[in-house]
Prior knowledge:
The protein is mostly helical. The protein is built from nine helices and two strands, in the order H-H-H-H-E-H-H-H-H-H-E. A two-stranded antiparallel sheet has the order 1-2. The chain is elongated, with a radius of gyration of 18 Å.
Amino acid sequence: MLLSHAFGLFTHPGQEWASIRKEHESPMKLYVAYVLALAAIAPICAYISTAHFGWTIGNERLIKLTEISAIQLSVLTYVAMLVGVFALGYAINWMAKTYGAKEEHVPSNGVALAAYSCTPMFLAGFALLYPVPWFNAFVFLAAAAYSAWLMYDGLPIVMGIEKERAVMYGGALLTVALVILVTTRGGSVILWNLGVGPVFISG
């Protein structure tokens, strides 16, 4: 089962990457069985915490989002995560030949590497149930660091390249990931200006 890889990547990542490389699951099946499920964690938790729990900054009063606003932002976040994983997977396959990958002809490898590398980020979404900004920032920063390490660790195994080339390949992919992140943030600003921004209420 694809979801079993989520736990294996934390306990024995090397063996798990080797198993993932052998599977060659289709990108569609990988998305439906893995990405769609795990990517939903953060939006659902964010909706619950922002619409029902609320948060405070310093000694200020409790702040929440309206139900409609929380749903809209959660759905947009979910879509952005799905697009981001696909874009990163596409970039992995696109740059594969440049770095001497032997598996670039398998279209599922790039998506698989992107999806499974993002597992810590997906699971970090549970932290949003405790809506404290500094706590959420710390959890997601740690998850991002482990995701980056997973990608570096998995590149030579899944894409069939030398370990030395994984450093440059991984650096290029992290740059792509940052571009995707900045793009989504820019898109958020545009959508907010179009009226799909957060609507706050007092708790």
